[in-house]
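Researcher: Quick test of sequence recovery. Tokens follow.
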């Protein structure tokens, strides 16, 4: 029962901190942009988007920092600053880097393999490994924040695989339900964005639950007095 509560805690914390930080940053950044004089004119002045972009990125990093601190509680980590840095630097940079990389790779992959591999399969081949890397690297950073390299390596593998498998299963289930990336009228339904969002949500929940369970188990092994129920 305690293990189930811990996993639910990990899933909820992951969703609310990471997705919440991103959403909050985007909303505040958009408000700032809308209040900027001349934002309706084209082309935009680069200075008009700098502050909103910084605010949006700030939400990204703040969410990661909150995530690190909240997960650190499971291991009774006393250095909250270290956990905040681990959470922020573990999640935000890898996510942003892979998002930019996908922007470059997607059109190249479509041009090179689009004739032989359906678009929805290319989507799967690109985004499942992405889910693994984001979840795995983020989890690894939490392990480093806890000053446990062996735990960090284990988190990288197990949380990464759990998140990737979750994304894959959601992707295939949504395909069978008619949400096929690249299908006729897919653009009107925002199919790619919908599948990506739901897949990321599921990957975050499963990865967060797995991470919470592993962190708690490790801390209990170090000090059996912790987490008594």
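Model:
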């Amino acid at each position: 029962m305690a293990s189930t509560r811990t996993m639910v805690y990990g899933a909820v914390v992951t969703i609310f901190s990471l997705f919440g930080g991103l959403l909050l940053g985007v909303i505040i950044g958009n408000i700032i942009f809308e209040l900027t004089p001349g934002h309706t004119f084209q082309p935009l002045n680069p200075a008009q988007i700098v502050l909103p972009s910084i605010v949006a990125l700030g939400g990204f990093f703040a969410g990661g920092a909150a995530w690190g601190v909240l997960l650190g509680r499971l291991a009774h980590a006393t250095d909250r600053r270290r956990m905040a840095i681990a959470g922020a630097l573990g999640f935000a940079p890898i996510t942003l880097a892979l998002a930019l990389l996908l922007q470059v790779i997607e059109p190249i992959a479509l041009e090179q393999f689009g004739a032989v591999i359906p678009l929805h399969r290319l989507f799967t081949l690109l985004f499942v490994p992405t889910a693994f890397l984001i979840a795995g690297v983020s989890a690894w950073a939490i392990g480093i924040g806890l000053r446990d390299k062996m735990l960090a390596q284990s988190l990288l593998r197990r949380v990464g695989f759990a998140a990737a498998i979750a994304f894959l299963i959601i992707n295939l289930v949504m395909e069978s339900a008619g949400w096929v990336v690249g299908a006729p009228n897919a653009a009107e339904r925002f199919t790619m964005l919908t599948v990506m969002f739901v897949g990321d949500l599921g990957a975050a929940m499963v990865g967060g639950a797995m991470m919470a369970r592993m962190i708690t188990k490790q801390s209990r092994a170090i000090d059996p007095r912790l987490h008594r129920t």
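Residues 38 and 44 are 8 Å apart (CA to CA).
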